[in-house]
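[Automated response] Your request has been received and processed.

Submitted sequence:
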Amino acid sequence: MSTVGSFFREDDHPWLQCAVRDVASRGEGTLTAVVHEQHKGRTVRVAHVRAAGGVEWTTAVDNLQLLR
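Generated structure:
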């Protein structure tokens, strides 16, 4: 785990650089990062996913499915 500034903490997630599906948006792409963010006094884990076309979005880590 590494620290990025004072707002984020990056997670060494086992699916990094793997193909995933975001069940909330039904989008598919590569998991590029998982960060811990402070939100209203609690910590939430946010996944960053990048589609083949280069568009990146965020979603909750619990929304991810690993594609095989």
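Summary generated for your ticket: Confidence is low (pLDDT under 50) at residues 1-6. Strands lie at 2-4, 8-10, 19-22, 27-39, 42-50, 56-60, 64-66.
If you did not submit this request, please reply to this message.
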